[in-house]
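Help! Submission page says 'invalid entity' but I think these are all valid:
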Amino acid sequence: MKSSEIALRRTFAIVSHPDAGKTTLTEKFLWYGKVIREAGHVRAKANKSYTVSDWMKIEQQRGISVSSSVLNFPFEGCYFNLVDTPGHQDFCEDTYRALTAVDAALVLIDSVNGVEKQTIKLMEVCRMRHTPIITFINKMDLDGRDVLELLDEIEKILQIQTCPFTLPIGYGKLFKGVYSIADNTFHTFSKNDGKQEILQMSGADDPKLAELCGEEYIKEFKNRYDVATQAMEPFEKEKYLAGKQCPVFFGSAVNNFGVRQLLNAFANIAPPPAPRESDIRLVEPMEDKFSAFVFKIQANMDPRHRDRTAFLRICSGSFERGNKIFHCRTGREIRLAAPTSFLAQDKEVIDIAYAGDIVGINDPGIFNIGDTLTEGEKFKFSGIPDFAPEFFARVTLLNPLKSKQLGKGLSQLSEEGATQLFSALSSALPVIGVVGELQFDVLKHRLENEYGAEVQLDKIPVFCARWISGDQKKQDDFAKEYKGDCMQDKHGNLVCLFPNEYRLNLAVKNYSELKFSKVSSNEEE
Ligand code: G4P
């Protein structure tokens, strides 16, 4: 029973560049999953960068509660967990970490713009993890790029073999529909959820196709068809599962065209939950005992309550509401009172969740990103990366009466993982570090709006940051000499911000007994 439930789980993320249509496509998914009744047109919010999740747009306009980082929906007997990869122009760790929680990814490409910057970066993470990829080329209703050129671009830039499952006929205003290669069906296109039909053909040469679409489009299509079926490698599931080959679909999210085919492909070929490496052994999803890790922490999802949610990816077994679990880092037993899924009209308290599922639990402040939870066995899941911040700024509070609020905001937001908080040795002003510079704006905005603390951020020019470890006496000497550049992270570790390469090299030479690491070497994490 448990194993059949687990086999039906599909946990994936959408990899795309802002504006490719992720929000629009997500909304259609929810409509197919019968989570929302009416899939209309989500108007993009003017100031996208401040939404915690891109799905907040849907929430604000449809009045449904999806302000989370995960959406759960059923489709064709499968149970989907869609994890958000925040689509800011800039990068933050959240985006990368989301990809550690999924078993598959959907690469969404705008037919006009082709492969764009953010997609390339995110694909690097997928490639590193051998994540199986399905590609959807969106906006076929616009005058986009040549189809074969797009496929070539994906192969070259994203370094993955493509395997078209469908091929478009016509494009832009004269987009006629797509031809499904495997079952020889023609899916007619019409705008705005109009009448879209699936017509059986005897093959790509069927004269009915020319009648429906016009000779000139068929000629072009036949050319693509011959290339796809004769010159390109045929689909092999093993290659797909190894992240070496990706099925490609064409469609138009805003017109709800090609979306069902895409979901069907996920249901049919995307992998169920995969085994996960830990520091002591490989953990299989079908194991009886429960295990999970925390990949995201989010504060203030509900502005009416000050709350914090930890997002868990369940890796093995199942767990029921009220079960006690073991928090490996602290060795504490915790009772999970109200695990929530993010389904339907509201956040729902769930009674049981299985390997592959992403659930949210209330975090009273005990969880860290990367924490492992089990039924008693002590181990730690590996592969949840810790990112070293690259940009640093001093935080000055503009209204001194709000210092309590600032303290609370800084510590809560840093626990979410997108910013890291430090205390300087030579100044009382807190320092924050981020991976992407845009996080500075997000932090400033959230401190003001969620905590009422208006701040000024002054960037610190930094060549690199190094975590210093080794003999305590030597560390103290070092801290004394480099006091102006030194600070402590949240665990009390010594960190030095070197303003240039020369000073770094000098420090490494003069303090050869100490270790200078690029990331925190915190033992307990
Ligand atoms: P994102 O989450 O990836 O950033 O993209 P989003 O869904 O917000 O879509 C970005 C823009 O692309 C939106 O237009 C959306 O309507 C449009 N779009 C999505 N899919 C298609 C498609 O298949 N065809 C066409 N032609 N457009 C599509 P916008 O102008 O930014 O917003 P709006 O004013 O239309 O709401």
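Support: the input was valid. A stray whitespace character was the problem, and the output above is from the cleaned input. Residues 94 and 119 are 15 Å apart (CA to CA).
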